[in-house]
Structures are given as C-alpha cells and as structure tokens.
Amino acid sequence: MTAPTDLTSAGATPPPRAVTRFLERARTLGLDPEVRTFPAGTRTAADAAAAIGCDVAAIVKSLVFIADGRAVLALTSGANRADEAALAAAIGASSLRKADADEVRTATGYAIGGTPPFGHDTPLPVACDRDLTALDEVWAAAGTPSTVFPLTPAQLLTATGARVAVFGT
Ligand code: 5CA
C-alpha cells in the first residue's frame, strides 16, 4: 500500500491544476476539502475504496449523463449501479444516456475518474443516490484520478444542491 499525501499540509508538493481549481471552487462554497493523493490511483470506486481503506459504498461516483440533451450529474454510491430508467424518472427526463469522455470534460471541466461532485465549469443539475445519505462520511474525487477527499452527506447535498432519489441498484 502506498502512503497517501495530504495536499493541504504545509510543505506538500504543489497539486495538479485540476485539484487547485477544484479547491478554489470548493472554498467559494464554504468547504475546505482535505485532499488525499494516492499515487497508485483512485480512478474507480473499487480503486478508491482499496486505497482509502473504506467501504466501497462510501465512495461517491460522479457519473455524468445526457438527459434530454443536457448534462446531469448522478452521485452514485460505489456499491451501486445507476439504473438509467430510475434516474430518468427521478429527474423527469424522457431520454437519458451515459455521457462519453469528451462530454464529461466539456460539461464539468474534469476528466473521467477525477470528476468531483461540485466545482464544475458550469453548474449541473445533480441527483444523489439515497444510499449515500445514510452514511457518516463519504469520499469523492478531487479533480484527478489519484485524488479524493472526505465529506459528510450533508455537505455533499448542500454543496451540490442535489435532489435525493432512489436510482442505485
Ligand atoms: N475517482 C473515482 C472514485 S471517486 C471515480 O471518479 N469514479 S467514477 O465512478 O465516478 O468514475 C469512473 C466512471 O466513469 C465509471 O464508473 C464509468 O461509469 C465512467 N466511465 C469510465 N470510462 C468511460 C468512458 N470511456 N465513457 C464514459 N464513461 C466512462
């Protein structure tokens, strides 16, 4: 196991630009995330849970979908799959599909595997898997596929303005 680096500690290596951008935007929302870097990678929920040493259910997957032609974000527990029909119903969309890698970057300003739940280039409508809201602490991507940060579900909901829904299976 590789030891994590705390990017918010004095003397730490300068973070990648995507992380700096994420942190600046988080601070405008009143948050000050403690970003952890895992050189072995946190690209998937399973990778992130293994690196952090937490339950995969506590990983926030920030999944971008195109719903009726516009990007939406589905914050999904790492233990769940986002059911597209249930998600479409929850947000009132008549058509819904997964965004491709270019669409994710265009909509959020971040790459797949590093997309954070907030701090995007332009605000997106957000739905949050109800299973995440039952936990004390969850972990989300901080802008790159090797950075994560912890937060409470209450902070996640406040920062994103998410609608809580049941769409994880
Ligand atoms: N850093 C981790 C945990 S915080 C993370 O970002 N996980 S994630 O689930 O939010 O991002 C990875 C997700 O991106 C995958 O679950 C998958 O749904 C999606 N994905 C991966 N490759 C592609 C691709 N080529 N096109 C569209 N979506 C993709």
Question: What features would you describe in this structure?
Answer:
The protein has 169 residues and is of the alpha/beta class. It has a single domain (5-165), classed as YbaK protein, CATH 3.90.960. Helix content is 26%, strand content 24%. The protein has five helices and nine strands. The protein has helices at residues 17-28, 45-52, 84-91, 101-108, 153-160, and strands at residues 5-6, 36-37, 59-67, 70-77, 96-98, 126-129, 138-141, 147-151, 163-165. Strands 1, 2, 3, 4, 5, 6, 7, 8 and 9 form a nine-stranded mixed β-sheet that branches. The mean pLDDT is 94. 5'-O-(N-(L-cysteinyl)-sulfamoyl)adenosine binds at residues 42-45, 48, 59-63, 98, 100-101, 112-113, 115, 140-141, 145, 148. The site of 5'-O-(N-(L-cysteinyl)-sulfamoyl)adenosine (5CA) has 20 residues, from α2, β3 and β7.
Task: Describe the structure concisely for a colleague.
The protein has helices at 17-28, 45-52, 84-91, 101-108, 153-160, and strands spanning 5-6, 36-37, 59-67, 70-77, 96-98, 126-129, 138-141, 147-151, 163-165.
Question: What is the end-to-end distance?
Answer: 30 Å
Listing every helix as H and every strand as E from the N terminus to the C terminus, the arrangement reads: EHEHEEHEHEEEHE
Poorly predicted spans:
none
Task: Count helical runs.
Answer: 5
Helix content range of the residues, please? 25-40%
Number of strands: 9
CATH superfamily: YbaK/aminoacyl-tRNA synthetase-associated domain
Q: What's the CATH first level?
A: Alpha Beta
Q: Shape, please? A: globular
* DSSP strand content: 15-25%
